[in-house]
Design brief:
Layout lengths: L1 H37 L5 E3 H8 L1 E7 L11 E6 L5 E8 L5 E4 L11 E3 L3 E9 L11 E7 L4 E6 L23 E5 L4
Parallel strand pairs: 6-10
Antiparallel strand pairs: 1-5, 2-3, 3-4, 4-5, 4-10, 7-8, 8-9
Length: 187
């Protein structure tokens, strides 16, 4: 009998609590969506400009997508004269040209990960298999050492914390990560 009175009490109060819950949820949604749109967007530019600033394009992959379905945006890996590897989002313009996106603060961003000191060449890049289709896994580089041995090496990304950032080209729109990779022992 006591259980029935508790249920009746909850049902009577639900009619007054429900509108407030809906209003609170709507306000939170509006505030969170507004914040996302206020983050400035970095622009895309021709790939030739990126090769002048970040070195030669050496390989491409898809950006890892841990929180969305699909293969992610394209990612170009560039190597500058100092040996730093820069991971920069790529896209294709309406005429088939390749464009890249680098936030203005990228040069000042911290190193996101290191490569083994014995790595001589990056010969490819792919997403690490993760055993399910909800995301694509961490970015892995295929490295070759001086003896010709080939091995996979996963690398971590970084996130630009202030200023304009690159955004994904397909829904859901998310801010994209960067890669700044140096060999172990190099600063």
């Amino acid at each position: 009998m006591r259980t029935n009175s508790v249920i009746r009490h909850l049902l009577r109060n639900a009619s007054s609590v429900l509108p407030w819950g809906c209003l609170t949820s709507t306000l939170l949604l509006v505030v969170s969506c507004r914040y996302v749109e206020q983050v400035p967007r970095a622009g895309y530019a021709p790939i030739a400009q990126f090769e002048q600033n970040f070195g030669k394009l050496i390989t491409v992959a898809n950006s890892p997508t841990p929180d969305q379905h699909g293969t992610g945006d394209r990612l170009g890996l560039f190597q500058d004269d100092n040996g730093t590897i820069w991971g920069i989002p790529l896209t294709i313009d309406e005429h088939g040209g390749v464009l890249g996106c680098a936030p203005p603060m990228l040069r000042d961003a911290p190193v996101s990960d290191t490569l083994p000191a014995d790595a001589v060449d990056i010969i490819g890049a792919a997403n690490e298999p993760n055993g399910w289709r909800g995301g694509t896994g961490k970015l892995e580089l295929l490295l070759r050492d001086a003896q010709g041995k080939v091995r996979w090496h996963p690398v971590a990304a970084g996130q630009i914390k202030s200023g304009p950032v690159c955004w994904s080209q397909s829904p859901p729109e998310i801010s994209l990560v960067y890669y700044r990779l140096v060999k172990t022992g190099v600063k």
